[in-house]
Amino acid sequence: MDIIKVLIADDQTLMRDGLKTILELEEGMEVVGVAENGIQAYELAEKLNPDVVLMDIRMPIMDGVDSTRIIKNNNPSIVVIMLTTFDDDEYIIQALQYGASGYLLKDIQGNKLIQAIRESMAGNLLMPSNIAVKLATRLSKISEKESINIKSNNLALSYREQEIATLMIKGYTNKQIASELCISEGTAKNYISMIYSKIGINDRTKAVIFLRECL
């Protein structure tokens, strides 16, 4: 039986250590690396080429949704499972759109986590029933105009980037954006830089004008 190589990405040390302990006790699984944020996650995924990434959704510097997008773009064969305490509809939809293989809550039992990893390797979509119901309801309400992805001139912003773009349009400073979204000012700047890169504009005023047309 082939060994399943797993990369763990979570900003909480206790959670990382707990997951690592559970997986290393399971025959046929190996934890090849751990990451504390989304940037470390995609860098380690590129370096270590794991079979599965257990990805926390909300992490500093870069969240798990954007990290998933990069990982799946660079290596579509890697299975990414979103693991979080939040059953946030928007994040679920975004992660699935980027190629995540499912979404599990962090209070899942160890044996069920092991089973979920094996099922994901078999190509099955992982979704707790209560989240599946919410997702179905949310998707049924999305019209073309309300789509999660903002698309204009091949532009596609992540959910977090959309939040920040909306605040930029409202005239928020980087510090105010960070306070509103409970992230560091440095993280806010990183996301704004990614927005600039996607729209091809480095001037904030011009960027706001452009984004206002998209939102």
Automatic annotation (TrEMBL):
Keyword line: DNA-binding, Phosphoprotein, Transcription, Transcription regulation
GO BP annotations listed: phosphorelay signal transduction system; regulation of DNA-templated transcription
GO molecular function: DNA binding
Top-level taxonomic group: Bacteria
Coiled coil spans: none
Record flagged with keyword Phosphoprotein: yes
Xref: Pfam families: GerE, Response_reg
Primary role: May play the central regulatory role in sporulation. It may be an element of the effector pathway responsible for the activation of sporulation genes in response to nutritional stress. Spo0A may act in concert with spo0H (a sigma factor) to control the expression of some genes that are critical to the sporulation process.
Record protein name field: Stage 0 sporulation protein A homolog
Species whose genome carries this gene: Ruminiclostridium herbifermentans
